[in-house]
Predict the 3D structure of the following.
Amino acid sequence: MGSRQVLQVFEQYQKSRTTFVQTVAELASRPQNIETLQNAGVMNLLRPLLLDVVPTIQQTAALALGRLANYNDDLALAVVKGDILPQLVYSLAEQNRFYKKAAAFVLRAVAKHSPELANSVVDCGALDALVICLEEFDPGVKESAAWALGYVARHNAELSQAVVDAGAVPLLVLCIQEPELSLKRIAASALSDIAKHSPELAQTVVDAGAIAHLAQMILNNDAKLKRQVFSALAQIAKHTVDLAEMVVEAEIFPAVLTCLQDSDEYVKKNVATLIREIAKHTPELSQLIVNAGGVAAVVDYIGSSKGNIRLPGIMMLGYVGAHSENLATAVIVSKGVDQLAMAMSEESEDHILAAICWSQGQIGRHTAEHAKAVATRNVFPKLLQCYLRTDASEDLQQKAKKALKNCLQKCVHLPALEPLLHDAPSNVLKHVVAQFSKVLPHDSKARRLFVTSGGLKKVQAIKAEPGSALAEYINTINNCYPEEVVKYYSPGYSETLLERLESYQPVA
């Protein structure tokens, strides 16, 4: 056998290995093939190919493993149990840029499923190797490493802290300054995942100078980048007043408000979330947003959005309205209550309705004028309907009840209260009757209207426990009228009259 024939055997073997890994990588990209590949023992066959002498075979084997691990946590666990991670980490430091990208992809695919699997990635020493990759010249390697670090950090504060301790944050801040859009996106996303868990982690991101660089990108044309930028700023601002003030000091207002009308739904949602996270902290921060035209802009955005996309805006109006009478008035003047009332009619999901109820309650709870603004938009019957719905979530029922109670206790606009006399259960009814008992003694016109509209008759039909607060309120109302008028509208009075008629003997 000549040397040519001997070499052919090796060439044939190399071709077969190449064909095998390429085909497996291709098959692994389709979910319907995963189970068959798993049952065929693909993991054990790919593992030795990670150490193949041919670089393309190594890279393709890593790519195939990444696609398998990405599919579900069982396969990711198989990668961990197969002792594949240490091999990948070792190769991250040694191999070329193509292999580094593939290895980082496997680490990311394993880390994404659960804190436990992410912990396995940390335990095999991957973080230091990934952080070194952030200093690579090739932007694709940086991007793959940043992506893997973000997937580790997103699970919890401990894993985030491990990413911080490995020195990732300053390098991620450098990555958001690179010209490549995809690298900027992934780095901003990773910073967001680190900052979200605690004030201390957010402070680490701020100390690395992230806010100024993120703020420069808020008017970038790329929607996917803006999503991540606004998400990161919101995750920083949400923790404390100081952090929120630092975000505001980067002069993001009024520029961010234009993004509330962005064509990308998630840009709109993330901007509204950022504004909400700033507004919730203090009246001063809310006032700053009002002064920048923020409330009017949020009201417009709620009107042009649906479902979960408008949820942060709905909550933002509640937070602003909760701080003070003046801020609640600013929401009312900007047609916030009208927009919330319209959204209440349009939405069907309980968690969104609960947010609307909560916001209406925060705006209407301050004074009689605030409560009237809510009442005249026909909100009370809707709140009552949410509270009484048998299939409503407990959270919706509680928020609707509390909002109704908060507004009722301030409301003296009787036409809005009257329908509730007929529909409200006893625990809400007492608040309605209480308001009538406050107004009627001092308003003769209201007393007359209360009779002609059937209100007095309805009150006489209420069965109140003697000595209860409700009984006292009814008593106060009855004392506003002559005794014979009260008797006339009491249940059974017509029968009493008829009995007297029957027993009456006319004088001959």
Observations:
- The mean pLDDT is 88.
